[in-house]
Specification:
Length: about 70
């Protein structure tokens, strides 16, 4: 598994009480050559798409979208 492409930008958001939260937006593409790993990683990524990941999910942070690309 390796990073194939990356295009991210860090951002800071201010939420209630003037609290600043750091995060990023963008996309990261991975190349997975092992089909056994591909199935596991895809399953976990789809679960992450359902549940979101990381900190402050209830504020809309941690949203991921899984996109399948051949090649």
């Amino acid at each position: 598994v390796y990073v194939r492409e990356i295009n991210i930008k860090s951002n800071a958001w201010t939420v209630g009480g003037g609290v600043k939260l750091n995060g990023f937006m963008g996309h990261v593409g991975f190349k997975i050559k092992d089909n056994r790993l591909l199935n596991w990683i895809h399953t976990l990524a789809k679960y992450g798409e359902f549940s979101n990941v990381g900190y402050r999910r209830h504020l809309g942070m941690g949203v991921i979208n899984v996109v399948n690309k051949a090649n």
